Amino acid sequence: MAEFHPLCIRAEKLYDWVTRQVDKELTFSGPAGLEELDFDCNGEEGADDPCDLLPPGEDFIVTVVPVEGTLECTAVGPRRNVFIQDLGIELQEVKIRKQGSFVVELRLNEDDEEPICTSGEVDFCLFEKFLLCAPEGTDVDCEIFDFAGNGVVCCINGEFSSLQLSLHICQSVQVVANVILEIEGAECRPREDIILPISRFCPEITFPPQCPEIFPAPHDKDHCKHKV
């Protein structure tokens, strides 16, 4: 069997990779908040008050559901060079915009298949700054790989007072560029974010298992010697 040896490939090189969780609190208060949420309850359209359906002494189970196809994560604006004294390296400050839409579902029991009330679509837009190895000539790719939320409805004297929501957005940010390489490869993982630590909510990024017994197959001698 032939031995493995370096190969020259044209590929997308990963310059940097971080994941980050962002938590956003939203509050909808009073008649204006209820109108903005535009709840439909029991299949009836209109700005319904879910508190009319809440039995005394009970609370709604609040679920936040993203609207399919609306979540976006994009690098915006110019990059700024920042020298990190502790690391002795110059990185780039990159602005990342996250936006999309979600609906709020209210249930009285966790095992209820259908919600008793569903809000209209609620839009959101957030900006964050990242310190990345993103020199000129590279592209920044961002993906929202998990989105969840919960909250609580406050009813006073049987009428809607407020809805407080907590959004949890997990994002993967990669810096890439097309290069020609001579490599021997192995799977890698994102590095730790250079930001103050936060409580972890985001799940680990995993890859499908490989079948090394059969692939990659052995290669004959390759004459590609150049490195770029």
Overview of the molecule:
This protein has 228 residues and is mainly beta. The protein has one domain (7-183). The protein contains one helix and nine strands; from the N terminus they run E-H-E-E-E-E-E-E-E-E. The strands form two sheets. Strands 2, 3, 4, 5, 6 and 7 form a six-stranded antiparallel β-sheet that branches. The chain has a three-stranded antiparallel β-sheet with strand order 1-9-8.
Task: Give keywords.
single chain, 228 residues, mainly beta, six-stranded antiparallel sheet, 1 helix, 9 strands, disordered C terminus
Number of helices: 1
Number of strands: 9
What portion of residues belong to β-strands? over 45%
Mean pLDDT across the residues is 85
Helix content: under 10%
* Total domains: 1
Oligomeric state of this protein: single chain
**What gap, in angstroms, lies between the N and C termini?**
29 Å
Structural class designation = mainly beta
Please write the string of helix (H) and strand (E) elements: EHEEEEEEEE
Low-confidence stretches: 221-228
The radius of gyration is 24 Å
Shape: elongated
| Largest sheet geometry | 6 strands, antiparallel
